[in-house]
Write a structure and sequence with these properties.
This protein has a 6-stranded mixed sheet, with no helix packed on it. With 404 residues, it is α/β, with parallel strands linked by helices. It is built from 10 helices and 8 strands. Helix 4 crosses helix 7, helix 7 packs across helix 10 and helix 8 packs antiparallel against helix 9.
Length: 404
């Protein structure tokens, strides 16, 4: 590959990475030398690489899985091939076979954790692979390994022997005894210019990787939907994770075989949906038949509904028009948007406010972030006055409970 990697395609970059992949050095390693090998190959600070592995390990073990794969597939400095390749007879590796088998077995529980870990782990793995890809694309020309010398086989021996072919220039014959030295070379004649021949256009065979991967993803989706009736494990989050993993495998194969770029248009939106489903707690949300804004201003306690909800929009309930005595209890929910409740200034209020992702302002007590919940109890100052019990929640958005 040329020095300018920024112009290389995905396929060429991945192939070149495999040809010139990092080697695990004997010195400077902490465990197996994976981080040290990456740092040495691309001439970066090894501390940065180790910190990145630790950070990815916090993503439900994504860094551990990547490190195990590097231990298996990155050869050691003096070895011919990696430990995994030596196990299938591709060459010699100094890694003991029992250790290689043990590492291979360790990948299986890590892969199972990959499926169970949700999109935090999936995102960590994809981020790790993307970082390695970007590193090779930008610095793959640095510290490239030297190619091995060309060898030729001489069949005069049994068995055939191998030697390095070299070219020795002819010695000078000072006495002119060599017959070929008697002839003087003919005067050089100017060669006629040769018109460059156009390169034949080679039509690339159409790859079936994209279509096969899409079909396999549909089979996985259908199987997951059927299995969800028998096992609670097949939640929407896990189902999308299996489909994205299938599409990702197709993209990896397509990087070498071609014909899978169209899968990116499926992987990206499905990944975003998976991240939302994994990050947001929908266990309390029973769904709604409404879409859009909902506004309510009851004037009597018996006009207060048990629940005000909307899938997307703003749900606003104004209770300031209620009488000064009595008690009401209601629930306000929104899937994505804003849930707002205004209570009378002198009412006794018990409010539970929760937002899976967003902000909460519950009678002046404000919290922000992910899975934020708070319960506030306030006495409005009027004994025997109106009592209000609220449960206000938003999956994605804001929750506001205030006095009018």
């Amino acid at each position: 590959m040329s020095g300018n990697l920024s112009a290389a395609g995905v396929e060429e970059t991945l192939k070149d990475f495999w040809v010139s992949r990092p080697r695990r050095p004997h010195g400077g390693r902490k465990i197996a030398g994976v981080a040290a090998g990456i740092a040495e190959r691309y001439q970066v600070d090894p501390v940065i690489v180790r910190v990145a592995f630790v950070a990815m390990a916090l993503c439900n073990g994504a860094g551990i899985l990547i490190y195990l794969l590097g231990w298996l597939w990155l050869p050691q400095a003096d070895d011919e091939v990696s430990a995994a390749e030596a196990l299938i007879g591709r060459g010699r590796s100094s890694t003991p076979v029992p250790l290689t088998v043990l590492l291979g077995l360790a990948v299986f529980p890590a892969s199972g954790f990959f499926v169970d870990g949700g999109f935090t782990l999936v995102g960590g793995v994809l981020l790790s692979l993307g970082a390695i890809y970007a590193l090779h694309r930008g610095r793959g020309h640095v510290n490239r390994p030297t190619p091995a010398p060309e060898v030729s086989t001489v069949d005069t021996a049994d068995p055939p022997t191998t030697r390095v072919t070299t070219t020795t220039p002819p010695a000078w014959d000072p006495l002119g005894a060599a017959p070929f030295a008697w002839d003087l070379p003919e005067p050089a004649t100017e060669a006629a210019p040769v018109a460059p021949q156009p390169r034949p256009v080679r039509r690339r065979r159409r790859s079936r990787v994209g279509g096969a991967t899409f079909g396999l993803a549909m089979v996985v989706l259908a199987g997951s939907l059927v299995s969800s009736s028998y096992s609670s494990w097949f939640t929407p989050q896990h189902t999308i994770g299996l489909v994205v993993a299938t599409l990702g495998l197709g993209l990896l194969v397509g990087a070498f075989r071609g014909g899978a770029r169209g899968l990116i248009g499926l992987v990206v939106p499905l990944s975003l949906v998976g991240v939302v489903l994994t990050s947001v707690n929908f266990s309390w949300y029973g769904g709604s038949d409404r879409f859009g804004d909902v506004t309510a201003r009851p004037a009597a306690t018996d006009q207060v509904e048990d629940r005000y909800d909307s899938n997307v929009g703003t749900v606003e309930v104004d209770l300031t028009g209620l009488p000064a005595t009595g008690s009401v209890k209601t629930r306000v929910e929104v899937g994505a948007g804003s849930a707002r409740v205004t209570v009378p200034a002198d009412a006794q209020v018990v409010a539970t406010c929760e937002a899976s992702i967003g902000s909460v302002d519950c009678l002046g007590k404000r919290v922000d972030g992910r899975n934020r919940s708070t319960t506030v109890t306030e006495d409005g100052g009027a004994d025997g006055g109106l009592k209000v019990e609220l449960d206000v929640r938003a999956a994605v958005g804001e929750v506001v409970v205030s006095r009018g």
